Amino acid sequence: MSFLSFLERLAETSGSVALHESRYMYLIVLTVHVLTLCVFIGMSLIVDLRLLGATMRNVPVSEMITRLSPWIITGFVVMVVSGSLMFYAAPIDKYENLFFRAKMGMLILAGINLWIFFKRLSRSISEWDLDPVPPTKIRLAGGAGIVLWAAIITAGRMIPYQQYWFD
């Protein structure tokens, strides 16, 4: 079975059809997605700006990450669940959408950026935790996070308008 035929079968399930045809439920899911995106991006932006040395220079990075992580993680989890439901409502349309594919590719890059930060760069946090401006590698990770999330939001916002660009 090909991936496209799997998506066709997924789109024909009663849950997908109900969500897609619902007058209000899809809009509620979309609203939850956007609101949790605001929480996630807002908290992540604060951390990334601190990694750049652009704000809260007297706050240790480790303390900021510890305090904001519950908000970031909760926002991310709810955002992923609501985003998955939006995909489930119209899997073929999303799969065929270039902006959706770009968004998914950039999400992978953002995940890699985060993985590199926590697996490699944060190991030396005790050396630069109190520095007003962290080392270059740390600033690059923070800057990459900001750029990637801005691009992810832009691509996500463009998903419903693909036909205006390419059809």
Describe this structure in words.
The chain has helices at 3-11, 14-21, 25-52, 61-89, 91-95, 98-119, 125-128, 136-158, 162-166. The protein is elongated and about 55 Å long. With 167 residues, the chain is mostly helical. It starts with a helix and ends with a helix. Helix 3 packs antiparallel against helix 4, helix 3 runs antiparallel to helix 8 (136-158) and helix 6 (98-119) runs antiparallel to helix 8.
List keywords for this structure.
mainly alpha, 80% helix, 0% strand, elongated, 167 residues
Outline: elongated
* Helicity range: over 70%
Q: How many beta-strand elements? A: 0
- Largest sheet geometry: none
Q: What radius of gyration results from the CA coordinates?
A: 19 Å
| Beta-strand percent range | under 5%
Ranges with pLDDT <50 over ≥5 residues?
Answer: none
Question: How many alpha or pi helices?
Answer: 9
The helix-and-strand class reads mainly alpha
Rounded to the nearest angstrom, the distance between the terminal CA atoms is: 29 Å
> What order do the SSEs take from the amino end to the carboxyl end, as H and E?
HHHHHHHHH
What is the overall pLDDT average?
Answer: 95
Blueprint of the fold:
Layout: H1 3-11, H2 14-21, H3 25-52, H4 61-89, H5 91-95, H6 98-119, H7 125-128, H8 136-158, H9 162-166
Helix pairs in contact: 2-4, 3-4, 3-8, 6-8
Short description:
The protein contains nine helices and no strands. It has 167 residues and is an all-alpha fold. The chain is elongated and about 55 Å long.
